[in-house]
Amino acid sequence: xxxxxxxxxxxxxxxxxxxxxxxxxxxxxxxxxxxxxxxxxxxxxxxxxxxxxxxxxxxxxxxxxxxxxxxxxxxxxxxxxxxxxxxxxxxxxxxxxxxxxxxxxxxxxxxxxxxxxxxxxxxxxxxxxxxxxxxxxxxxxxxxxxxxxxxxxxxxxxxxxxxxxxxxxxxxxxxxxxxxxxxxxxxxxxxxxxxxxxxxxxxxxxxxxxxxxxxxxxxxxxxxxxxxxxxxxxxxxxxxxxxxxxxxxxxxxxxxxxxxxxxxxxxxxxxxxxxxxxxxxxxxxxxxxxxxxxx
Length: 295
Prior knowledge:
Structural class: alpha/beta
CATH class: Alpha Beta
Radius of gyration: 19 Å
Mean pLDDT: 93
Number of helices: 10
CATH superfamily: NAD(P)-binding Rossmann-like Domain
Strand content: 15-25%
Largest sheet: 8 strands, mixed
Number of domains: 1
Helix content: 25-40%
CATH topology: Rossmann fold
Low-confidence stretches: none
Number of strands: 12
């Protein structure tokens, strides 16, 4: 298959391209410049421009673009960028899909755990409904834009991606190695997670499985608190995880982003994904932490 990818240079996009190529598929990267390789496609989503005719050539579209929520602080200007970078990209892709005479079979579009908001001990399934807060509003609008596509639409609600490379955990690993790692706030809040390998594998699985549609939680089946997760990673590096960061200090330093990204509780169910026949490479924290530490 030919698969068009936005956000192809990001953490998940890079892994996704590698896995697709290994399976014999042809990933195409959307770039904001003149292409200099045959597997690149030009676009400028802020202007609604996409290389003409490309939707007639591809079998699937994976929409992973968007400014990183982990960039702190969330100024008013940056919050506007978080919104526009997602909605402009999605609208550009959806418009091109809907204008194509022979559109791709499926659009797999990014979303996030943030759609649920802070939900305490509630087990969050795909039909649990929208929560409250900026990230919930953002994910809701992101999904609504994707659902306008005439192709089969799959919405991947991503959580913390465990990887040794980049992302939130990538920034935490140097602290753990320096004996400075520890849980955030009380550490009792639920934190869903998934390994980078399984994140990409799940996206490919949802592309290939034509019976899938709508939202899917991309989260491993083992539930964990923030304390559980950080302890597992620290143990894999043979380090302690004793240095707790108080919630009040995080709120003082990071403001709204601390509450929504790090202190909120999200206990996500993976049942819908598992019921499609997907099997996790890293179904538990111990195996995922070993993967992080070994790479």
